[in-house]
Amino acid sequence: MEIATGRSNVALVTGASRGLGASIARALAGAGWAVAVNYAHDEPAARRVVEAIAGAGGRAIAAHFDVTEPVAVKSGIERIAALLGPVELIVNNATGPQPVMPIAEQSWDVHLAQLHFFVKAPLLLLQAVLTDWRARKVGRVVNVGSEVVELGSAEFGHYVAAKAAMVGLTRSWANELGNEGITVNLVAPGWIPVERHVGVDPADLEGYRRLVALGRIGSPQDIAAAVVFLSSKGADFITGQIITINGGRTLR
Fold it and tell me: Which listed residue (159, 166, 189, 239) is catalytic?
């Protein structure tokens, strides 16, 4: 699949040492992107992703920085540019703990913790590259949202609200930046089991599966394929869109 953007073809995938981020990083590398594998804590896992990409003939570096800290984001973007080239694709995948708790226990700080990952971090990253993108009329953002915005999952208002905010900024950014050659889209996965779901009750998975029109649980590769498409030339005329990838779990 042909890459859409310009000279450097460098992608930054946040939270890419494991889970969806690792699968997205590997898929983008397979499509020809040089990939900065961002991580906050798990250096060995990030190195394994980089080694897997290199072993398959791709280019990647591990990029250690906190996507919620302005100084760290600025220096992280500069380091990527020095080692790989200027970033032209940002995949906002990084997340933190996602506790389930009733409304009575949800403090404002609990809500802010989610907003830091799903609003603050994408904003900082976009601002760090925006001058360059505007000058060259290149750039793509793919935000990783969630089906919970449609489901309104109970005892999850802090997470649902932050993911809903991500939908809003996706649409606003698409309108503001479209005439400068920059596209902004969001993929909204369903329940995709990854490492942090090890030990989940099989009955819970089966209960979810029964609600999926396609009759199966999705895989990280399903999400990665959509990100690769939105990053390709085939998606040149797509912006401001929310693509739900959950096998028909939610249908409008």
Answer: 159
